[in-house]
């Protein structure tokens, strides 16, 4: 058997790389169906699983989230990784993958809430088998490090997911929390139960006006750029891309944006949404980078003509609203502000 045919046979049987699952359901980007796959929306009595694909969290730290989601009428199943610790992770890679796999396979669980972010999803994603998930899709919920999972399932399987706050961001007492906290947490419930989401952002003098209707994809910038060249690489062609980041130097942001540009991820967009870029680290004295975030964005996208908006309410911040990734939205950027409206299929 020649080398080419031998490798093809190994890959088709999943034998090429021990421990890495074959992914028969994966389609090339250009062969994706026109409309995304929307998992079934939840109704009262449905189960939500809580698991830790990234950083660790103690059982008592998810109590507020459990109480609130139960008040919504859902049954909560707590995964085996809650309370586990392996360094900074919620258990070993094998333990986190096994817990997540159990929830992917369990037909009774209709949504999977990631307990927190941190780091670790990309370490275990290649251990997962998505066959059951692609046959019976369910909502995957989270942000930050969970961007790796959003990127993987949005791009590889054309299935939608929810970018939102996680268990570690739920308030201890929902009734006494402020309006922004209540609205952002309620946006998770609305997204899970089928409300077509609609958001606004104030006008920014750096916005580039225009409108676009397309699937919405994106998440954390550093995670997205780290997916480049991997099976979890984001597909941005013909999409509205949203980006957020926290705790980076300006030069690091420029490097990451450069990776997106050089890999073609900014070339064929329908629109670009810039969310919170918070707690940017100060330059070292004498080593000032000399560019603002606005400068860096338009250095990368100035030659294109799609709409661009800044300061959208998503990211590592209190006004971090739930967004349905890979669902079709209309973005409208005008001199009076920005609107993002989910379109029903």
What is the count of structural domains?
Answer: 2
| Separate helix tally | 10
Q: How far apart lie the N and C ends?
A: 48 Å
Portion in beta strands:
15-25%
Shape: globular
Task: Describe the structure in your own words.
- Residues 48-163 form the LD-carboxypeptidase N-terminal domain.
- It comes from Chitinophaga jiangningensis.
- GO terms for molecular function: carboxypeptidase activity; serine-type peptidase activity.
- This is Muramoyltetrapeptide carboxypeptidase.
- The active site is at 144 (nucleophile), 244 (charge relay system), 316 (charge relay system).
- This protein is α/β, with parallel strands linked by helices and 345 residues long.
- It folds into 2 domains: 47-192, Rossmann fold (3-Layer(aba) Sandwich), CATH 3.40.50; 198-342, LD-carboxypeptidase A C-terminal domain-like (Glucose Oxidase, domain 1), CATH 3.50.30.60.
- The protein has 10 helices and 13 strands.
- The protein has a 7-stranded mixed sheet.
- Helix 6 links the parallel strand 4 (139-142) and strand 5 (161-163).
- Helix 9 (250-262) runs parallel beside helix 10.
- The radius of gyration is 20 Å and the shape is globular.
Task: Give a quick rundown of the structure.
This protein has 345 residues and is of the alpha/beta class. It folds into 2 domains: 47-192, Rossmann fold (3-Layer(aba) Sandwich); 198-342, LD-carboxypeptidase A C-terminal domain-like (Glucose Oxidase, domain 1), CATH 3.50.30.
């Amino acid at each position: 058997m020649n080398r080419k045919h031998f490798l093809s046979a190994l890959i088709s049987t999943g034998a090429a790389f021990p421990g890495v699952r074959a992914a028969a359901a994966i389609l090339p980007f250009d062969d994706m169906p026109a409309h995304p796959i929307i998992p079934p929306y939840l109704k009262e009595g449905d189960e939500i699983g809580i698991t830790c694909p990234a950083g660790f969290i103690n059982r008592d730290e998810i109590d507020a989230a459990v109480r609130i989601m139960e008040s919504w009428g859902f049954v909560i199943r707590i995964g085996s990784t809650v309370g586990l610790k392996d360094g900074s992770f919620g258990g070993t890679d094998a333990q986190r993958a096994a817990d997540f796999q159990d929830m992917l396979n369990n037909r009774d669980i209709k949504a999977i809430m990631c307990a927190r972010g941190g780091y670790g999803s990309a370490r275990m994603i290649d251990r997962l088998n998505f066959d059951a998930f692609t046959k019976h899709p369910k909502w995957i919920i989270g942000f930050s490090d969970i961007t790796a999972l959003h990127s993987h399932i949005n791009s590889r399987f054309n299935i939608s997911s929810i970018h939102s706050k996680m268990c570690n961001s739920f308030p201890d007492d929902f009734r006494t929390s402020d309006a922004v906290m209540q609205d952002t947490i309620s946006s998770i419930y609305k997204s899970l139960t089928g409300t077509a989401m609609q958001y606004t952002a104030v006008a920014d003098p750096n916005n580039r006006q225009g409108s676009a209707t397309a699937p919405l994809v994106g998440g954390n910038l550093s995670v997205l750029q780290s997916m480049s060249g991997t099976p979890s690489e984001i597909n941005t062609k013909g999409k509205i891309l949203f980006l957020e980041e926290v705790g980076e130097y300006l030069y690091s942001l420029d490097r990451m944006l450069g990776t997106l540009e050089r890999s073609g991820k900014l070339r064929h967009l329908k629109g670009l949404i810039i969310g919170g870029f918070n707690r940017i680290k100060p330059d070292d004295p004498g080593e000032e980078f000399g560019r603002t975030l606005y400068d860096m964005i338009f250095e990368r996208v100035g030659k294109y003509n799609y709409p661009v908006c800044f300061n959208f309410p998503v990211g590592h911040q209190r006004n971090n609203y739930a967004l349905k990734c890979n669902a079709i939205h209309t973005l409208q950027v005008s001199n009076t502000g920005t609107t993002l409206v989910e379109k029903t299929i």
